[in-house]
Structures are given as C-alpha cells and as structure tokens.
Amino acid sequence: MVNSTPVFCITCSIYSMMALSVERYRSILVEKKKPMQPRHAGAIIALIWLFCFGLSLPTMVTYQRVEETHGNNTTILLCKPTLPYEFNIFNGLLILIVGYVVPQCVVYFNYGSLLMFILRRNTIGPAPTGPAPGAGSTPGAVSAVARHRVKIIKMLVWAAALFTISWIPYFVLGTMAVSYSNAAKFTLL
Question: Lesser CB count within 10 Å: N end or C end of the chain?
Fold first, then answer.
C-alpha cells in the first residue's frame, strides 16, 4: 500500500491537469460545444480516480511485507517486490507511459493548439463582426489586446513547463531504481 499511494496520487494529479487542458482546449477551440456542467465534471473526476486506482493496483500487489533474519539473529521487516522482476519492469514502464508520457503529450497538444490559435487571432474571444465597442482602431486598444494575448501565452507555457518539471524527478528516480535493482540482481548471482 505504501508504494502504490504515491503512484495513485501522482497519476490523479497528472490526469487532473490533463483534464483541465482538455477542457480549456474544448471551451476555446470547440466553440459550438456547451460549457461543461458540474455533474459532468464530477463524473470525470470520479473516472480519473478509478482509472488511477487501477493503474496503481499492480504496484499494490507487487510489494509485500517480508521478514529477513540476519547473521546476528536480527529480524528486519522490509517491503519488497515479491513478483518476478519482469513484472516489475512491465509495471514500471506501464506507469511511465500511461501515467506520464501520454498525459504529457495530450497537455502539450492542447496547449500548443491553444497557443497557435491565440497567435493567429487578432483578438481574444469570438471573432468580432465589426470594430470593438469603444475601441475603434486606437493604438491603445490594440496594445491592450496584445498584452492580454502575451499573458495567456505565458500562462500556457508556464503550466506545461511546470507540469513537466514537477513530475519528471519521480519518474527519473523510478527508472533509476529499476535499473539499479537489475544491476544488483546480476551482481549477486
């Protein structure tokens, strides 16, 4: 349970970030869709939690409490993988790809599409049919729209970058742990 809890929490966080990027993409680029209702959001959150629990389930059953007795009759209680090494490798790759790489690709696709959409438009929001009320073609109005576009672009870049930076240490360390345990396995033989 101890080893599966981080997997569950991290993948819930990652998939929630992905759901936010999908909703931003949907609400801005697919203008004909109705806004998401709270009950739909609740259902999506519940599905994310169920999916992430399922993703963490193999880790939960892999690790068991094991008692080891050492030479001086000292018994140590450890949490060790009890399933074959190949299963641990498969599980680690599954978590890496499904829990990190796929959601990251979706987030970058959504935010990249939004970025391209914002850069191509002259204004934020629906395309105007005439001059903006009170704006006319004054340089101040154009400058305000440009500043607003830059703020949105910065927010999207920061969200995607922080998403990557926040979770990459966990997955790098997990990959290293599997690699080092493999090396230790062969040196002990």
Answer: C
